[in-house]
Amino acid sequence: MSPDTGKQATRAASSDAPPSGDLRPPPLLVLVLSTAISSLALHMVLPALPEMAFVFGIPPGDIGFVVTTYLIGLSAAQLIVGPLSDRFGRRPVLLAGTGLYIAMTLLCIATPSTLWLLIARALQAFGGCAGMVLGRTIIRDCYPRDRAASGMGYLTVALATGSMLAPGIGAFIIHYTGWRGVFVTLAAIGVAALITSWRYLPETNRFKLERLDTRMLVRNYQWLLRSRTFLKYALATSCQLSSWFAFVTIMPAALVAVFHQPATAYGLWVLLPMTGYVLGNAAVGRLSTRVGGTRLIQVGLAISAIGAAAMVVGAMGLVPGPLAFFGPMAIIVVGNGLVTPNANVAAISVNPAIMGAASGLLGFFLWTMSVFSTATVSFAGTDNLAALAAVVVGGNLIAIVLLLRVPR
Predict the structure, then answer these.
(1) Domain that holds residue 357
(2) Hey, is 206 helix, strand or coil?
(3) Tell me, what DSSP letter sits at residue 24?
(4) Which residues does 386 contact at the CB level (< 8 Å), separation at least 6?
(5) Separation between Cα atoms, residue 139 and residue 23, nearest integer Å
């Protein structure tokens, strides 16, 4: 990367000015729908996993790989979507990704085999991740850093609320229509996201790159990988969130196999940690501009540490039933909710000229680590909840170590 770009990045790391000038942001509903489709496709399908395992003849312990495959698609797309939006703009890339998401969701409905299901899920994630990557980038295009964190907090509250309700909604749909009804619902939500984005989403990238080639992408990623600030924020938030995805991968089946509860019980139990995540992000939305992101991160790390200690107690069998795991996870994600929006904004703000690439690399770290965390607990099996506790506690401890001495 050129010296001028490096100087710009240095200024951006300490500047509160919006990188793209005074832009009018799109309506929140547009960003919520575009960003939510990928998360809903993950969480709404979770109650369907036991039925899908039966229909496709997949061993119950291996059905978690349906989630892992989805995360692989998310991970692979991260490094492509962000740079494409830096070159061609946020709007066309978001619309194209949403269109691919809809097509692959329909393929999931008609899939004839397990192989095609896994392929469709990976490509569904690939398209859906456009909203996930570009939602936070569009907010940063329009707002200075602290206000962007506040906006991202409110956006995450809306998304987390949807994700919190998604398993229960999915269980209700499955009860009356079977697992394919979930994918019909997801396709309809994708169509709504496409229509609202086409109608109301403006182009927010005022500094499109003149060209995009492999060497430029490599230089951009090399610059980011040499940035200690980017790496610490990106790796910390990835460690925290990958532990959450390990949790939601294994717990639907564990509730049935270990705690002998019906498959629909997951939709109720998961409300506990999802409520905690909503509370954490709501606090960011209200307090980020007044308190500052750094202090909220410190508070969030302390809360996550308390939750991690409680998870150890639960894994030792000192708390009965599912509460041993859902209770500590609720505490952990309150802390994660305080950390994630602020850490995400800090990570993608290191250089406004390549914010799309930074957002993509941040997402790549997250989903790649999530692939490993979900695969780890899937290989360990649904009855090995000690492995789940190790992944959750370990991920949060690593995040604490990284952010305790993050560069200011």
Answers:
(1) 27-202+217-404
(2) coil
(3) P
(4) 315
(5) 10
Asked whether residue 3 is domain-assigned, the answer is no
Helix (H) or strand (E) holding 17: none
Burial class (CB in 10 A: 0-12, 13-18, 19+), 349: buried
On whether residue 333 sits in a domain, the answer given is yes
With DSSP H G I counted as helix, E B as strand and the rest as coil, what are the percentages for the chain, rounded to 5? Answer: 85, 0, 15
Q: What is the C-alpha separation between 163 and 140, in angstroms, rounded?
A: 23
In a domain, 20, yes or no: no
Looking up residue 347, the CATH number of its domain turns out to be 1.20.1250.20
Residue-by-residue pLDDT tens, the chain, 408 positions: 443 444 444 444 444 555 544 567 788 788 888 988 988 998 898 888 888 888 888 776 667 778 888 988 888 887 888 778 888 889 999 999 999 999 999 999 998 888 888 999 999 999 998 988 888 788 878 777 667 766 776 777 666 677 777 888 888 898 889 999 999 999 999 999 999 999 999 888 887 777 777 787 888 889 999 999 999 999 999 999 899 989 988 888 889 889 988 877 887 898 899 888 888 877 877 777 778 888 899 999 999 999 999 999 999 989 989 999 999 999 999 999 899 888 988 898 888 778 777 877 888 898 889 889 988 988 888 888 999 999 999 999 999 999 987 655
Task: Tell how far CA 211 is from the center of its chain.
Answer: 29
List all residues 6 or more positions away from 348 whose beta carbon is below 8 Å from its beta carbon: 136, 137, 140, 355, 358, 359, 362
- Which burial class, exposed, middle or buried, applies to 330 when counting CB atoms under 10 A from its CB (0-12, 13-18, 19+)? buried
Overall domain count for the chain:
1
For residue 19, tell me if it sits in a domain. no
